[in-house]
Design goal:
Distance between the termini: 57 Å
Structural class: mainly alpha
Shape: elongated
Number of helices: 3
Strand content: under 5%
Helix content: over 70%
Radius of gyration: 21 Å
Mean pLDDT: 94
Oligomer: single chain
Length: 57
């Protein structure tokens, strides 16, 4: 029973944070999508991937 009580208390303590994250999920996805598709970011990612390819050779 102690383990069960501990699990319940942890769940209750985490509930507000989980609810907050779930509410902002779509907003966060949109922000990430907009950020990752910027030309400067795409260029940086491309250069990074090329450097990884060159390290393997």
């Amino acid at each position: 029973i102690q383990g069960f009580a501990r699990q319940l208390s942890k769940t209750e303590l985490r509930r507000p944070t989980i609810e907050k994250l779930l509410k902002k999920k779509e907003e966060d996805i949109g922000y990430f999508r907009d950020y990752i598709t910027k030309d400067a970011i795409q260029k940086s990612l491309g250069m990074y991937l090329e450097s990884l390819k060159n390290r393997r050779k």
